[in-house]
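Morning. Coffee machine broken again, so started the prediction first thing and wrote up yesterday's gels while waiting. Chain of 431 residues, entered below exactly as on the submission form.
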Amino acid sequence: MLTELNYPFDSDQIISSKKKLLRLLKEHESGTPLKIAVLGGSTTSDIVKTLELFLRNRGIIPSFYESEYAQYWSDAVFGTPKLDAFKPELVFIHTCARNIEEKPTVGEDAKSVSEKLEREYARYEKMWSVLSEKFGCVIIQNNFEMPSTRLLGNREVGCAFGRIDFITRLNVKLYDFAQTHANFYIHDINYLSAAYGLERWHELRHWHLYKYAMSVSAIPEFAYSLSNIICSVMGKNKKVLALDLDNTLWGGVIGDDGQSGIEIGHETHEGQSYLALQKFVKAHKELGVLLTVCSKNDPENALDGLNHPDGVLKPSDFTLIKANWNEKSLNLEETARELNLLPESFVFADDNPVECDIVKAQVPEIMTINFENPEECIRAIDKCGYFEVTNLSADDAKRGEMYAANAQRAAAEKKFASYDDFLASLEMSAV
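Came back before lunch.
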């Protein structure tokens, strides 16, 4: 695994070093093979090359079919001998707002615009239907980004012939389809472009020169976002969020300041920031992410901090709590063993850069998140994409309880001289 490809990464460095990074990844090539067809409404070559880097770094070895420029619809609907022989396991349809054919015109009435909307959507649904029937594969479809200019100004929304209004309604139709069809996922470039900045995203010179749907500098961000969906579909996303305590889940040091002295709650702006982080972390538990503690602390102090009346994370929210004075890398490895998970399933968040560096050196499979303040930690957990959701069931929310019970059974087993004695202690009965 190359640290240059872990979040946060340097986009310019990736762009300039693609060949070198690929060569390094291929030196230790291992992983799950995946055949990906990329059907593009614009130039896709550099997207594919960058996507390959991120996928290989997460243990997926891709092979690609690329459509010719702007031949996405004909390749999908009519097929080609090469695509049919390729038999993709995943199809990515790389379209953008420039590929919308049925655009509203100024002054057009609402009925006519709605008819255009239905025809435009029908083109895409036709593609998905044909691809699904032919290959039975996962399909990832870009939604549509907002334009860089607004002809009608603020009237672009709430107006029948406004382009932004039209794109928004078209996006909603894509979302409705995704909610009712398995193995179909939206790559949200509408959000991605907004977060990146529409003026930076829409580099007209790069469109005119290369027919790129985005600026060259945005390609790594785009490819990384897409790779998170693919990794999640392939079961390569992370399972555990391990957290430090002092100056991570609250402000201050619980052993020095006591429960009443740490910053958490509504009384101060700093306390509110840590409370927001705790709420954000707790929400991940509802997605099935296992929460654990890895802190250099006395156990009683750690529990005292987690039982703060203004905090939302309580000891019961954590599958395992490791609060001692051992090296954090050792605690993380022990947590992995007790949960019967590989270290590569873990993400570790700590405000101390030295602790993160030690973990990276001792257990490089574990992703680390270092931050200076709670807001930065929230952004890092959100943007890293390690916990990308593609499928969510009622059982996911119970996953922490299941792993906690398994860990308790494993700990109880150690107390007995033999496995038979352990089984007898459970007092099980069969019917």
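Strands lie at 32-40, 60-66, 90-94, 138-142, 184-187, 240-243, 290-296, 320-324, 346-350, 367-370. Going to sketch it on the whiteboard this afternoon.
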